[in-house]
Every structure is written in C-alpha cells, then in structure tokens.
Amino acid sequence: MTPRRLLVILAAIVVSIAAGRTAGTTFGAFSATTTTGGSTIAAKAVFPGTRSWSAWDLRDASSGAEVDRSDAEAFVGTTTTTKNWATTWSTTRYLTFDMNAPLPSGVATTGVSFDFDFSDNSNNPSNQICFYFEVLRRSTSTVIGTHGSSTTPVACRTTNTILQTSTPLPEVANSDVANDLRIRIFASHTITARAMRIDRAVVSGSTTVDPFTLYETTYTDAADTVPATTPWGIATADGTGHQSGSNWQTAFSAARYLKVTFPDYLPASATVTSAQLVHSFRPTTASATACFYFDVLQGAAVLATYGSATTPFCATGAAYTTNTIAVPALNSAARVNGAIVRMYVRTTNGGTTQHDQFRLDVGYGVD
To answer: Residues of 135-169 as b/e, b for ≥16 C-beta within 10 angstroms?
Structure first.
C-alpha cells in the first residue's frame, strides 16, 4: 500500500471518530470492514456500553392481591380520559408524550411509527373527535415532522370504541433521533366540546439489530389550554413516584410485593457484560423505616435473590434513598429481555411506601 493511500484511510477513520464525539456518544456503528496491510478493523453493530431503561408494567400486591398499576398509555386495555377539547383547532390545545431513550446511539432505524389508539368519550355520530400530530426533537423543541392537519386529520372517531392507528415516521431515521422524541397531538370536536379517551401511545420500529418500542416518560394534557403534566412515576428520579396501593405489613410476606417487568431492548446476539438495578424509595411516613429485598425472574423461574428478610435494603426518613444493586444473574440477552423484579417490602409502622425509580442499567455490545 502506498503512503498516500494509508494516509487517506487513516484520515477517514479520524473523521468517523470525530463525528461520533460530536454527536455526544461513546458508541457507534460501522457498516464495513477495512483491511490495512495485515491489520483488520472489523465492524460492530453496537459498540459496548451501558444503556438504561425503566419498566412500564407494574403490579402492586401490597394488599396481598396483585393489582395492575401499569402505565395507562403503554399497553392496550387501560384508558386515560383527557380534559375537554374545543370545537375549533388551536395550537394551545394539545397532548404531548415525551418518549424514553433506551437505544444505542448511531444506529439506523427502519419502520418507525407512532401507534396511537383513541376514541371519543361518548357515542354521538354527529360529534366526532379528530387529531393530527407533530414530531419534535425533545432536546430542542424543534418540529421535525407533521402528520395530518386541521383540514386533513390523521383519524376521527364518533364512538367510544377504541380505534387503533399507526402512522409511519420517516423523519426518525436513526437511534439518536428516536432517543430524543416528543409527540404533540392536536385535536378538536366537531360540535360540542368534550374529552378524548386514550388507550395507547407508543413509538415502535427496528434498529439494525433489534425491534423496539418506546414508551412515554411524561404525559402533558393541555386540551383545555392549561398544561397538566403527569410523569410515569418510576421512570426517572424526579420526586414523583408510585405509592403502594395499600399498607405493608411490619414483616415480609411472600404474598405482598411490587413487581415490574422490563421491556425487550437486546438482540439475541448481544454480549452482556453487566447489569444493575437502580431503585429509589422511601416510607410515606418520615418517622418510619421501609425495607425490601427482591427476586429476579425470567418468566416464572427465579434466577436469583438479592438481599433477604434478615439482610434487606432499607430507607428511613422523608428523603428518597437510592440503591444501586449489581444483578449478575442478568448475564445474557435471553435473561435481560422481559426480566422481572419482584420486590418484597415491609415497614416498621405498617404504612405505605413511595417508589420513585425502577431502572435497569445493562452493559452490552453486539458484534
């Protein structure tokens, strides 16, 4: 190889590395293999790194009977009723969904869509609810796509039977955009102001290595022009958490627990190097102490137990206590995807607890 040819190849590599740094990431995706005089630079689909995500499937058995307390916008079957919309369109009347950011950076995406299931709040064929929406970069509030309009809405509904819609998002061409999404919905009724019912609002698609679904971390309802923001309580450490539905007992019980199921974000070929659970909680009564230990499961099989009834993780007082706990049992994609944490809790006063974050941090790469 000539010196000039070698310099050209090295310059190309430097430019690629610099571009990755400019994007604010330590991970990347190459699409080719380059040979330089006996040395080979092999492509990796996803460079090793740690990515994080929460759980949106939450079951509360603090009473001794399991109750589904999952995020209403994440799954089919549980609806949220908005505030009343007007009979005219307005940019001050909207819903926004800020989506989570679990994907490796610098990876191409395909088949991305916004899946929005909705209905009118009552049955009246002459008074329908219609919507269109914008796609924004959350970090800058920049609109990168508009789907439908006030004259040609994406969909309309006259009844309270849920209509499932799926709108392609070609503007979401890579994981950096997907990790920075805000969806803003505009709607109106044709005759009388009233509410909309929402069953699901997610973004789905595929990267070069695996399909994905993005879920909302906060939901803002400004249908009446007054924004009201509701965070998904366990998504981030923001001081707004899930409060147990019932009082705990003063001793641990196998029938009393919180259970979260994490979504699938790893391809089967991923090499897992680390996993940890980050959990923030406190007793609702500041003078009490709350304690927990937990099982990690895949399906019905218990993979491992962390802490115990005699050596639990505890918190006392009004401030949230954050525990970062290594979970070596989650050592493969098959174990990480759909991992379940079943957390047994007790309190010294037999009271409730508040849980501000359930987060899974996974170190992995994909060849």
So the answer is: bbebeeeeebbebbeeeebbbbbbeeebbeeebeb
* 96 lies in the same domain as 216: yes
Report d(CA 339, CA 345) in Å as an integer: 19
Angle at 267 (CA atoms; ends 262, 272), nearest 5 degrees = 75
**Could you give the number of structural domains in the chain?**
3
pLDDT digits (tens, 9 = 90+) for 310-347: 999 999 999 999 999 999 999 999 999 999 999 999 99
pTM score, whole prediction: 0.87
Residues 178 and 293 in one domain: no
Contact 296, 302 (CB under 8 A): yes
The DSSP bridge partners found for residue 186 are 132
Calpha distance 41→34 (Å, rounded): 5
Residues of the chain with pLDDT under 70: 1-44
Whether the Cβ atoms of residue 198 and residue 117 lie closer than 8 Å to each other: yes
Task: Give the pLDDT of residue 106.
Answer: 94
